[in-house]
Amino acid sequence: MASEEEGPTGPDLKAGIPATDLPDGGMIAGHVEGEAVLLAHRGDEWFAIGAACSHYSGPLAEGLMIGDTVRCPWHHACFSLRTGQPLRPPALNDLPSWDVDIRGGMVRVAAKRQAAPRPTRRGRVPASVVIVGGGAAGDCAAETLRREGYAGPVTIVDPDPDTPYDRPNLSKDYLAGNAPEEWIPLHPPDFYEEKEITLRRGPRVATIEPRARRVILSDGSELRYGALLLATGATPVRLPELESGSPGVHYLRSLGDSRRIVGAAREGGRAVVLGASFIGLEVAASLRARKMEVHVVAPDARPLERVLGPELGDMIRQVHEEQGVVFHLGRKPARVADGRVMLDGGESLPADLLVAGVGVRPDVALAEAAGLSLNRGVLVDERLETSAPGIYAAGDIARWPDPHTGERIRIEHWVVAQRQGQAAAHGMLGLDSRFDAVPFFWSVHHGVTIRYVGHAERWDRIEIDGDVSARDCVVRYRRGERVLAVATVGRDRASLDAEAESEAVGFGG
Ligand SMILES: Cc1cc2nc3c(=O)[nH]c(=O)nc-3n(C[C@H](O)[C@H](O)[C@H](O)COP(=O)(O)OP(=O)(O)OC[C@H]3O[C@@H](n4cnc5c(N)ncnc54)[C@H](O)[C@@H]3O)c2cc1C
Ligand code: FES
């Protein structure tokens, strides 16, 4: 996975390359004293930063340069070519940067730069910030506040003893046994202490009092805030009618949930996954990687058809079937008893392990009790502020006015939640914080990754470039003349291009 693990490739950039080898707008990966370095050329300027993305080590040289920034082809993080700083999640950590010398027609990467000191932000900033939920949005907001030089107290409250961690990995490499638990935290343990971010893990926020600007925690303590971020995420939809059966039903949202599934998985055992959702199918793939027999039961005619359409739905089914997953589509579970799942059609499946991935509901109870405006999520304005001044909402719970579709949307994607956390933090500090990112997500099935930009709840036409069955395609979802969203398989650069295009002109034609 990490290109660094294979050792840096390409030219020795300390020795240099002829300037004519890299035209304006070009990027090349090389190395300097054993480190992988990206050399980029834009106009009269040359830049050198680390070549491997600080998220999962994606190859930045295969990404997209826009002005003095570069975007990663894997999950669309964006870095400053001038400083190596991550400008947009999912990358959270700086890349190193180097000086570049141009002499005698040669370009050489010279001294490594010192990290720039962080600014200190003064002026009209909140006296303190409380963040409810240390997931994607909450963690990124805290980190952004410090990155932008906010010096006041920042507290994250979360009942989860393990938070903050890389939630998408819980159904993928971690569950498959390919990622050790040390990789799961978003930061090393001393990061929060160093940044003076207080992590209150254990209690939950029980009540918000917007007028008094304070929250009451489940352990009875209280915290006053100047600004508050609500980022409580979502909870899996449960199937109570099946919960008393044996085997019990597992749900997957937290690291604890994933650990319990790992603990119950046995090579050669039989697993039944309820729901052909992204999470359900990723769980199916990971349990196959653990050499379990895996059956997927879902009411749909095709997996993921409502999100991706019939062509990609069929492709996903084929990818799973090739790896031995057995589908029972058009079926619902009726009962679980004595180690079997009985389906509504009369069939019964033996099961040592049962996992349900049948959707999630946004966790809006706190917001509702605090009297915030809701409409299938917490309503926020374009700066992610709720109906209560000083209270922001981000991530799976937030329904925001999307400038690209002109509609209010709520989306359950990791990168969207992180970028909203970043925007909410900017808003608290009075910085430009209009949230106008084009939604992006990815999902991995037995090594086949789907990348998706935009948002299409309904479409009237699907346009396909390439060959879906060869897993090499760009799929456009259109309503009338408008392109609402673009999914790609095996064409990472096309996904970046679609994102950039839609930012520039909006999804529109
Ligand atoms: C297994 C899995 C795999 C996924 N894979 C992908 C993927 O591949 N790509 C993708 O784009 N998205 C993926 N997602 C979705 C993505 O993880 C979510 O969209 C994202 O985490 C939402 O971020 P958030 O900050 O809104 O909520 P979360 O990350 O869920 O964080 C919310 C936090 O709030 C805490 N909380 C709740 N109530 C309270 C309270 N009262 N007081 C204090 N804290 C509270 C919770 O404990 C939780 O830690 C996946 C999700 C799961 C579960
Ligand atoms: S590896 Fe670069 S964004 Fe994930």
Please name the defining characteristics of this protein.
single chain, 509 residues, alpha/beta, six-stranded antiparallel beta sheet, 9 helices, 32% strand, binds flavin-adenine dinucleotide, binds FE2/S2 (inorganic) cluster
Walk me through the topology.
Layout: E1 17-18, E2 27-32, E3 35-42, E4 45-50, E5 64-66, E6 69-71, E7 78-80, E8 86-88, E9 97-103, E10 106-112, E11 129-132, H1 136-147, E12 154-158, H2 173-176, H3 191-194, E13 197-201, E14 205-209, E15 214-217, E16 222-224, E17 227-230, E18 234-236, E19 249-250, H4 255-264, E20 270-274, H5 278-289, E21 293-298, H6 305-322, E22 326-329, E23 333-337, E24 340-343, E25 348-350, E26 353-356, E27 360-362, H7 365-369, E28 378-379, E29 391-393, E30 398-401, E31 408-409, H8 414-428, E32 440-445, E33 448-454, E34 461-467, E35 472-479, E36 482-489, H9 492-505
Parallel strand pairs: 11-12, 11-17, 12-13, 17-29, 19-26, 20-21, 20-26, 21-22, 28-30
Antiparallel strand pairs: 1-10, 2-3, 3-4, 4-9, 5-6, 6-7, 7-8, 9-10, 14-15, 15-16, 18-27, 23-24, 24-25, 30-31, 32-33, 33-36, 34-35, 35-36
This protein binds flavin-adenine dinucleotide and FE2/S2 (inorganic) cluster.
Which sequence of strands runs across the widest sheet?
1-10-9-4-3-2
Shape: globular
Helical percent range?
10-25%
Total count of strands:
36
Q: What percentage of the residues does DSSP assign to strands (E)?
A: 25-35%
Ligand inventory: flavin-adenine dinucleotide, FE2/S2 (inorganic) cluster
Q: From the helix content, strand content and strand pairing, which structural class follows?
A: alpha/beta
The count of helical stretches stands at 9
Radius of gyration: 24 Å
Uncertain stretches of 5 or more adjacent residues: none
Q: Residue-averaged pLDDT, rounded?
A: 95
Distance between the termini: 36 Å
What profile does the largest beta sheet have?
6 strands, antiparallel
